[in-house]
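Review form for a predicted model. The reviewer records the input and the model, then writes brief findings.
Reviewer: anonymous (R2)
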Amino acid sequence: MNEQRLYHILLRGKLDLEQASWFPELTHAEADDGNTLLSGELPDQAALMGVLFRAHNLNLQILSVEVKVN
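Model under review:
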C-alpha cells in the first residue's frame, strides 16, 4: 500500500534563507505566531527523520510534527 503522507512541521522562530535551503523537499511559510511551518510530502519515515535531524543540526526547536495520510 503506497499512501501519500503530508507532513506539517512547526519550528520555533523564523528561518533565514540559508536555513530554509536545508529543507528543499518542503515548502516553508511564516505562521501567524511568527514561527515557521514546513510542509510537504515525504516518501517514508526515513525521509522524515532526515528532516528532523537537519532541524536538530541547525539548533532549531521543533514545536510539533503532524502527518496526514490520504
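Findings: The chain has one domain: 5-69.
Further findings: The chain has two helices and four strands.
Recommendation: see findings above.
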